[in-house]
Amino acid sequence: MILLLLTLTCCVCGTFETSYEAEENEDVTLEWTFTPADRSLDALNIDCAKVTNQKHWVLFRLADGVQVPESQDAQFAGRVHFDKDVLGEGRLRLNVTSLRVEDSGDYLCEYGEVPDVRRLTVRARRSETEPERRSTESWGWKDFISNLGMISGLVALLIALCLNIYACWRPI
Questions:
Q1: What mean pLDDT value characterizes the chain?
Q2: What is the pLDDT of residue 1?
Q3: CA 38, CA 73: separation in Å to the nearest integer?
Q4: Are strands 116-123 and 18-23 parallel, antiparallel or unpaired?
Q5: How far apart are CA 104 and CA 135, in angstroms?
Q6: Is 115 helix (H, G, I), strand (E, B) or coil?
């Protein structure tokens, strides 16, 4: 019931965001859709940046239909390519290559409408000899329910034990 309420709230409030996951050194294609304007693509202006509370790093800039690579922040220089063929369809497709863990974060694109956010998570690549570790951060609902069931069983056993002890020691 709570999950359903959360889902409905997210849909109504528009807080769903598109998320991408990849490992470092891989490539990822981030995509945004927008309503193509009646004007030509030569007048299209798009700004995309990685955003945090402290800073905006320019990922991609299109000014009057032309990519402005010199506006990219150094961490993205030479690693971001866009698919010009799909712009007319109202899609912005950015391919980010050679991902780094520090590329993880929120990416915001503005193109004259409401800004749109994509979340990218880049995991460190495990070495082949490193065993897979499971942290509490990666626990899912199944783990939570399983642990909750075990705890409930232990509590029930403890209550039964206490009642049994009380029944044995109760004065007659």
A1: 77
A2: 30
A3: 31
A4: parallel
A5: 19
A6: coil
Q: Say how many Å lie between the first and final Cα of the chain, rounded.
A: 48
User: Contact, 58 vs 76, CB < 8 A?
Assistant: yes
Do residues 51 and 99 touch, judged by C-beta distance below 8 A?
Answer: no
Taking the whole predicted model, whether its pTM rises above 0.70 is answered as no
Tens digits of per-residue pLDDT, 42-65? 788 899 999 988 899 999 999 988
What are the φ and ψ backbone dihedral angles of 143, each rounded to 5 degrees?
Answer: -65, -40
* Cα 4 from Cα 10, distance rounded (Å): 10
Q: What is the pLDDT of residue 42?
A: 79
| CA 92/CA 71 separation, integer angstroms | 18
Answer yes or no: is pLDDT of 20 > 90.
yes
Judged by DSSP in three states, 110 sits in strand
SS3 21: strand
